[in-house]
Write a structure and sequence with these properties.
The chain is of the alpha+beta class. It has one domain: 7,8-Dihydro-6-hydroxymethylpterin-pyrophosphokinase HPPK (Alpha-Beta Plaits), CATH 3.30.70. The protein is built from four helices and ten strands, in the order E-H-E-E-E-H-E-E-E-H-E-E-H-E. The strands form three sheets. Strands 1, 2, 3, 4, 5 and 10 form a six-stranded antiparallel beta sheet that branches. Strands 6-7 form a two-stranded antiparallel ribbon. A two-stranded antiparallel ribbon has the order 8-9. The chain is globular, with a radius of gyration of 15 Å. The termini are far apart.
Length: 168
């Protein structure tokens, strides 16, 4: 059964092999996913690593997609984009990576499976997700089970997150 078009927000991050270029090229790749178009993209941001401190800073962004892909199909497409960017999944959590693509929200869906958790559980605590998301999302965006984006934003200090100049 075909999926009607759904709005999905995707988090992007990289801290290896020219991270700014990795994220910019990944944003372009999102435009080429089947039955999907990128309707908005945030500015690029730099942020300290979430995991081990002995790694480079990250470059992050958020994209808004209108997609006809089901959530598992979208995840598979995003994993394929990561692989083309040299992403190696070795089980290390929060370690350095060439590209990380996360489905933050998928319409108002709530999915909790071993492969996929939507909405992404880290949204409320991550400035590198919230601030770029707030740049492109409607002011009254409600994230199912997490509340209003604006409320999460007020509770999450910007910290060392920096908006980068130039285009994504």
């Amino acid at each position: 059964m075909p999926v009607t078009e759904v709005i999905a927000y995707i988090g992007l991050g990289s801290n290896l092999q020219d991270p700014r270029s990795q994220v910019s090229r990944a944003l372009q790749a999102l435009d080429h996913l089947p039955r999907t178009r990128c309707t908005a993209r945030s500015s690029l941001y730099s942020s300290p690593p979430l995991g081990p401190p002995d790694q480079p800073e990250y470059v992050n962004a958020v994209a808004c997609l209108a997609t006809g892909l089901a959530a598992p199909e979208l995840l598979a497409a995003l994993l394929a984009v990561e692989q083309t960017h040299g992403r190696v999944r070795n089980g290390t959590r929060w370690g350095p990576r060439t590209l990380d693509l996360d489905i933050l929200t998928y319409g108002d869906a709530r999915i909790d499976s071993p492969e996929l958790r939507i909405p992404h559980p880290g949204i409320p605590e991550r400035a590198f997700v919230l601030y770029p998301l707030a740049e492109i999302a409607p002011a009254d965006l409600e994230i199912r089970g997490l509340g209003l984006l604006a409320d999460s934003l007020r509770r999450c200090p910007r910290g060392e997150l920096k908006r980068l100049g130039g285009d994504a």
